[in-house]
Amino acid sequence: MRPQLLITIGLLAVNSLGAADCNGLKALRLKGTSLTHVAQQPAGSFNPELGEAIEKLPAFCRVSGVIAPTADSAIHFEVWLPESGWNNRFLGVGNGGFAGTIDYRALGGNLRRGYATAATDTGHEGSGTDASWAYQHPEKVADFGYRAVHETAVTAKALIKAYYDETPQHSYFDSCSNGGREALMEAQRFPEDYDGIMAGAPANYWSHLLVGGIDAAGSMLGDPQGYISRLKLPAITKAVLASCKAGNALNDKFVTDPLNCHFDPNVLLCKGSDSLSCLTAPQLRTMKKLYEGSKTTTGLAVFPGYVPGGEDGANGWGTWITGDGPGGSVGLAYVENYLRYMVYDDPTLNILTTKIDDAVRRSDTKLARVVNSTDPDLNRFNARGGKLIL
Fold first, then answer.
1. For 28-38, b where at least 16 C-beta lie within 10 A, e where not — what string?
2. Contacts of 285 (CB under 8 A, 6+ apart)
3. N or C: which end of the chain has fewer CB within 10 A?
4. By three-state DSSP, how is residue 41 classified?
């Protein structure tokens, strides 16, 4: 029998405390778990310690706690159980970025729809771009990588059983980005946790996705003349749309088929002086590199490049690549934090002097098994009737 099944059986083998007895959950004893808050929450608004109040919630039993599968683990979780109108289903909540917070707003939305729901910070506190918690803490990295979401699912099911005196008819997980990576990790490693999984935009090749940013940073920041200002992104998008308008009935808004958009960036080369409507030669080299993707010095692909069409917009290159100025992008923050605190254990590491070949080797050797959810074998998940939507 697999170890995770033994853990599940051990947690579920508890005496039922009777349906809808929130206060009674305080007496529940779960292995490696401390319940820090158990209370009936009246209908209305809920105010997290951080963030805006969540309004129009039904009455629910709120359970908070900490799971410690190792001596260096502190996996904070929340389980919200509808007092009435439960739809007999459980819905797990995932995380974005490097996690570090509990998504109370997602919990509230699930609760309004009648779900018993649960979320975790994956074992640390911090902003989505911060990975300093991982510095010399391999067990916390394992909690983030795969353990915390699984442990939270097992604990939530035990609480559901104790509160309602029955198990969920179906259990679902729905999340995006790093949450999509978590979703695929659940299907691959812990197929018994969830019956239905939605993995949105899964950042599942984590060890290469972030290391691949070394190439982009080198092009964008290594040569000051190669930096592309976000002020030029509207002109780039306009040129892309003009190039890919064939067969696109909405060509004035977006590219409908990016993989068949064969855009030639050379059309943007400045014919005279630099302006917001064109790219200089160094900027053009940067743009081509972003489309091309990252490679090792021997030409092996590290991670695919960006497809044409996503340059401008609220969540386009201006956020992830260019930032408001050199060094100010969200993408760079992710790459630097991953390399400094997870790969090299060096808080002073300079991304511009980091060799991509060495970074790929270290990242794969040290972390691929822990953070990547790239295993194509879903036979166990499929055998129990699991459904996966990507």
1. bebebbebeeb
2. 219, 226
3. N
4. strand
The four Cα atoms 243, 249, 255, 260 give a dihedral, to 10 degrees, of -70
d(CA 195, CA 252): 41
3-state class percentages of the chain: helix first, strand second, coil last, to nearest 5: 40, 15, 45
For residues 295 and 286, the answer to whether their CB atoms sit within 8 Å is no
Distance from the first to the final alpha carbon of the chain:
30
The predicted model scores a pTM of 0.90
**Tens-digit pLDDT profile for residues 92-117:** 999 999 999 999 999 999 999 999 99
Cβ atoms of 237 and 267 within 8 Å: the answer is: no
Is the four-CA dihedral 115, 121, 127, 130 of positive or negative sign? negative
121 closest CA partner among 136, 137, 135, 100: 100
In terms of DSSP bridges, do strands 170-176 and 301-303 run parallel, antiparallel, or are they unpaired?
unpaired
Nearest to 314, CA basis, from 325, 303, 330, 290: 330
pLDDT tens track for 43-93: 999 998 777 899 999 999 999 999 999 999 999 999 999 999 999 999 999
Q: How many CA atoms lie within 13 A of 385 on its CB side?
A: 4
Position 81: which residue type?
L
Residue 272: CB atoms within 10 Å:
6
Give residue-wise pLDDT tens across range 79-94. Answer: 999 999 999 999 999 9
Please answer whether residues 381 and 187 qualify as being in contact, where contact means their C-beta atoms are separated by less than 8 angstroms.
yes
Return d(Cα 319, Cα 382) in angstroms, integer.
Answer: 38
Of 383, 381, 375, 377, the residue nearest 191 (C-alpha): 381
> How many of the other CB atoms lie within 10 Å of CB of 223?
13
Task: Count the neighbouring beta carbons within 10 Å of the beta carbon of residue 46.
Answer: 19
287-319: buried (b, 16+ CB within 10 Å) or exposed (e) per residue? bebbeeebbbeeeeebbebbebbbbbeeebbbe
